[in-house]
Design goal:
Layout lengths: L13 E5 L6 E2 L5 H14 L11 E4 H8 L2 H13 L1 E6 L2 E6 L4 E5 L4 E5 L3 H8 L4 E5 H6 L3 H11 L8 E4 L1 H8 L9 H19 L2 E10 L2 E11 L2 H11 L6 H9 L6 E3 L3 H4 L1
Parallel strand pairs: 10-12
Antiparallel strand pairs: 1-8, 2-4, 3-7, 4-5, 6-7, 9-11, 10-11
Helix pairs in contact: 1-3, 2-3, 6-8, 8-10
C-alpha cells in the first residue's frame, strides 16, 4: 500500500506538494506571487497537523513579505487565495472550495504574524493523497513566469511515472500551465505568451527537459503531445549555473536547447480509413 504523502518528510531545500493541489482549475486571476505564497503556506504547515481541518497555522509576515514586497500586497494575495475557488473533477463527480480558509494578520511594533487555515476539502485532499511533486525551492524561486512555475510542478509530479509522454487536449495544456479561463484562447497567443515562456524557463533552469508539441489536422491545432525526461549530470550542472545568472538574456542563452520545441506534428487525414 502506497504511503500517504503527508507521512513523508521533505529534504532540506525542497517541499512536497500533493498532486491534488497541482493543475487545479481556479477561477479568476492567479499571479506568480499568489502561487509562491500558497506554496510557502503549504511548506510552513507541512506535517501531521496539516491533516487537521481545525488547526490554525502561523507564519511571520516577514517571511511572506520577502515574496510579495509589503503588507498591502500581502493582504491582496491572501484575499486572492481566500476567494479563489478550485475545482476538482473525477468522472461525473465535481467539488469546489477556496484555496485558503480563515486568515488574519496581527502586528506589533517589532513583528507580525499571519494566522491561516485550510478548508476541510483541501485538508481531505492533502490527507488522502498518495502522489506528490518534489519541488526544489531554489528552482521555483528562479522562475519569472507563472506558466513556468505551473509547468514545473506538473512535470515534477509526473517524473516517476513509467511513461514519458502524454497526449493532451488544449484544455489540458491550459490547466497544466494555469492559464486563466477566457485568456489566450487563440493558439498563436497561447503558444507565444504561455507555452514558449514556460518551456524556456523549465528547460533552462529545472532538472527536467520538457516539450509540448502541437498536433495539427490540416492547419488547425487539435491536440498536443507533452514529453519529459530528467536531465543528465552535465545538464543539471548547466541548469544550476543558469539559475545563478541574471534572467536578462536567458532566452538567447537557452535558444540552443529549445529549438526543437517549435516542431509541429501534422496529423494527415486518411480518407480511405474514414470511409
Amino acid at each position: 500500500m502506497a504511503k500517504k504523502t503527508l507521512e513523508l518528510t521533505p529534504h532540506a531545500g525542497e517541499m512536497l506538494k500533493p498532486k491534488e493541489l497541482i493543475e487545479v482549475r481556479s477561477t479568476g486571476k492567479f499571479t506568480l506571487e499568489d502561487r509562491r505564497v500558497y506554496n510557502a503556506l503549504i511548506e510552513k504547515a507541512w506535517g501531521p497537523k496539516l491533516g487537521d481541518a481545525n488547526h490554525i497555522f502561523e507564519v511571520s509576515t516577514a517571511d511572506l513579505r520577502s515574496i510579495v514586497g509589503d503588507n498591502q500586497r500581502l493582504k491582496n494575495t491572501l484575499r486572492t487565495l481566500m476567494t479563489t475557488l478550485i475545482e476538482v473533477e473525477d468522472g461525473e463527480d465535481w467539488k469546489a472550495t477556496q484555496l485558503l480558509g480563515t486568515t488574519s494578520i496581527t502586528s506589533d511594533k517589532n513583528s507580525g504574524v499571519v494566522k491561516f487555515t485550510f478548508p476541510p476539502m483541501v485538508v481531505d485532499l492533502i490527507k488522502n493523497s498518495t502522489i506528490f511533486a518534489k519541488l526544489d525551492l531554489e528552482v521555483m524561486r528562479s522562475f519569472r513566469s507563472k506558466y513556468a512555475f505551473s509547468l514545473y510542478e506538473a512535470i515534477a509530479r509526473r517524473v516517476n511515472m513509467r511513461r514519458f509522454t502524454e497526449n493532451l487536449t488544449t484544455e489540458d495544456v491550459r490547466n497544466i500551465l494555469g492559464v486563466e479561463e477566457g485568456k489566450l484562447e487563440v493558439y498563436r497567443n497561447l503558444n507565444l505568451r504561455a507555452i514558449q515562456p514556460a518551456l524556456l524557463e523549465v528547460n533552462s533552469q529545472s532538472p527536467y527537459t520538457v516539450s509540448i508539441v502541437p498536433v495539427k489536422k490540416g492547419k488547425k491545432v487539435v491536440s498536443f503531445i507533452m514529453g519529459w525526461e530528467t536531465k543528465t549530470v552535465e545538464q543539471l550542472q548547466a541548469a544550476h549555473k543558469e539559475m545563478q545568472r541574471h534572467s536578462a538574456g536567458r532566452k538567447a542563452r537557452a535558444s540552443g536547447t529549445t529549438e526543437h520545441i517549435n516542431t509541429e506534428v501534422d496529423v494527415l487525414e486518411n480518407e480511405e480509413e474514414q470511409q
